[in-house]
DNA sequence: GCCAATAATATACATCTGTATAGACAAATG
DNA sequence: CATTTGTCTATACAGATGTATATTATTGGC
C-alpha cells in the first residue's frame, strides 16, 4: 500500500491558511507553515528521521507542488528546526506534568518516570524526534535537544535539593545526580520506544530501580564523605 | 576539497584479497569485504551515519565499480550490520583490556571509562557508529546495536559480581546496575562527542562520579535490604 | 595455448532528488 | 471592469542513485 498515493488534488478549500479577509492582496495561501510541519510530522516514524525526509516527499504528503514548499521554508532543514522547536515545547509540557505529579505524590522518582513513560505513548512522534535527532542530524538539531535536556536537568536538580531538605537526607553532587538521572531516563526511553508497548511497564520498573540506585548512592557518598576521585 | 576525487584507477595490485595461490580458479578479487567495510568506515563522520551512505559512494571510496559491490554484500544494509558488528567487537576488546589494566590507584570504573572516552578522539570511529546508529536506521540496525550493548552489559555484570566478591561488598541487582552503567556511559559519550576535545576530561570526571553513585547505591540497597518497588 | 571460472568493468535505464523558469490562478484595489 | 500582487502549478533539467545486462580481464588447470 505504500506505492502510489491517490494524488488528491488540492482545490482552494474553506480552511485556508490566511483568514478570509486579511487586508493583503494576492491569492490566499492554500496551506500554512503549520500544515507543512504537520505533514512532515506524519512522515517521521520509527525508521524515518527528519533528516531523511525529502522536500518532494513532504510536499506530496501535504498535497502541494514541490516548488510551493519554498513559499514557507527555505530548506527542509529550516522546517526540521521548526519541528524540533515544536517537539521541545511538547517535552516541556511533559516535564511540567512530571514535576506536578512529583510535588503531589510522595515518590518523586516513580511518578516522574511514570509520567515520562506515559507521554512516550501519547506524544510519541515528538519524543521520537527528540530521542533520535539528538544523536543524529545536524549540529542545530543536537543543540536544540541539548537545550531541552539541560532544562530538564535544572528542574530536577532543584527538586532533588528540596527533597533532600524535606527528608533530611542530604545528597552529594545534586547537579550531577540530576544529570545522570536525566540521561538515563532518556536512554531508557529511547530503548523502550522501539519495543512493543507491553514491555514498557518492565522498562519503567527497571528505570525506577536504576534511579533509586543513583539517589541512594549520592546520599551514601555524602554520608561517608567519599571522595569522588 | 570535497568535490571531485581524482578517480584513482585500481589495477590489480600486490595486496589483493585472496592469497596468491588459493587453489581456486578465476580472477582474483581486487578487494575484500573488509576493504569495503574500511571504506565505509572512512566515510562515516560526525554528521554522516551509515544509513546515509550510498552504494556508489562506498564503491567510489573503495575505488571499485559500483556493481562490484554486489560481489561482497547484497545491500548497503548488510555492510552496515557487519560494520556495527566490527565496531562492537573492537570496542569491547578495548574496554576489556582497560579493565585488566586497572590497578590500585586507577579503579576498574575509572580505567574503563577512560578507555571509552579515549575512543571519542580515536582515529577509528567505532564508538561514533555505535552511538549514532542505535537510534537511527532500520530495525535491523537498531537490533544490531542493541545486541552489542547487551554484550557490554553482560561482561560488565560478571565483573560487578566478581568485584563484589573480591571486595566483600555485595551488590543488589547487578544486572540492572550493569545496564544502568552501560546506558549512562553511552549517553554521556554521545553528549561528549560533539563537544570540543578539551571538555572531554570534564565529562569523564562527571561520568566516573555518576558510576560511583550507581555502584554505591546498589551496595547500599543490599545492605539496607531496600525493596526496589 | 586453450578453456573454464571468477571477478571487475562499462553501459544503460528508470527513478528520485532539488531547483530554475514561466505561466496560470485568485484575491484585493483602482 | 482591468490591474496588481502574491501564491500556486506545470514543465524541465541536471545530477545522483540502485541495479540489470553485457563485456572484458585475469586467473588456474588441461
Give an overview in words.
Two copies of one chain form a homodimer. Chain A is mainly alpha-helical. The first copy, chain A, has a domain at 87-223: Tetracycline Repressor, domain 2, CATH 1.10.357. Chain A has helices spanning 33-43, 55-62, 76-104, 108-122, 124-133, 139-166, 174-193, 200-223. Chains A and B meet through helix 6, helix 7 and helix 8 of A and helix 6, helix 7 and helix 8 of B. Chain B binds a DNA duplex (30 and 30 nucleotides) through residues 10, 12, 21, 23-31, 54-57, 64-68, 70-71.
Explain the layout of strands and helices.
2 copies of one chain form a homodimer.
Chain A: H1 33-43, H2 55-62, H3 76-104, H4 108-122, H5 124-133, H6 139-166, H7 174-193, H8 200-223
Chain B binds a DNA duplex (30 and 30 nucleotides) through helix 2.
Major pleated sheet of chain A: none
> What do the pLDDT scores of chain A average to?
84
Q: What's the end-to-end separation of chain A, in Å? A: 58 Å
Highest CATH level, the class of the domain at 87-223 in chain A: Mainly Alpha
Number of helices of chain A: 8
Oligomer: homodimer
GO molecular function, one term (chains A, B): DNA binding
Biased composition (Low complexity) (chains A, B): 19-28
Region (Disordered) (chains A, B): 1-28
Biased composition (Basic residues) (chains A, B): 1-12
Amino acid at each position: 500500500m505504500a506505492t502510489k498515493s491517490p494524488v488528491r488534488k488540492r482545490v482552494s478549500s474553506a480552511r485556508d491558511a490566511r483568514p478570509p479577509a486579511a487586508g493583503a492582496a494576492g491569492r490566499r495561501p492554500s496551506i500554512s507553515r503549520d500544515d507543512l510541519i504537520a505533514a512532515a510530522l506524519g512522515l517521521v516514524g520509527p525508521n524515518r528521521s527528519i533528516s531523511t525526509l525529502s522536500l518532494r516527499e513532504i510536499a506530496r504528503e501535504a498535497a502541494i507542488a514541490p516548488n510551493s514548499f519554498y513559499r514557507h521554508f527555505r530548506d527542509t532543514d529550516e522546517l526540521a528546526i521548526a519541528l524540533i522547536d515544536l517537539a521541545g515545547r511538547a517535552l516541556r509540557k511533559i516535564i511540567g506534568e512530571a514535576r506536578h505529579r512529583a510535588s503531589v505524590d510522595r515518590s518523586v522518582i516513580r511518578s516522574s518516570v511514570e509520567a515520562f513513560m506515559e507521554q512516550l505513548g501519547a506524544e510519541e512522534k515528538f519524543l521520537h524526534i527528540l530521542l533520535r535527532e539528538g544523536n543524529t542530524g545536524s549540529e542545530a538539531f543536537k543543540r536544540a535537544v541539548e537545550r531541552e535536556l539541560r532544562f530538564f536537568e535544572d528542574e530536577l536538580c532543584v527538586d532533588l535539593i528540596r527533597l533532600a531538605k524535606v527528608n533530611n537526607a542530604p545528597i552529594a553532587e545534586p547537579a550531577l545526580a540530576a544529570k545522570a538521572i536525566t540521561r538515563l531516563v532518556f536512554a531508557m526511553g529511547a530503548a523502550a520506544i522501539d519495543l512493543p508497548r507491553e514491555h514498557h511497564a518492565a522498562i519503567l520498573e527497571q528505570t525506577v530501580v536504576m534511579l533509586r540506585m543513583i539517589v541512594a548512592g549520592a546520599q551514601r557518598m555524602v554520608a561517608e564523605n567519599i571522595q569522588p576521585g
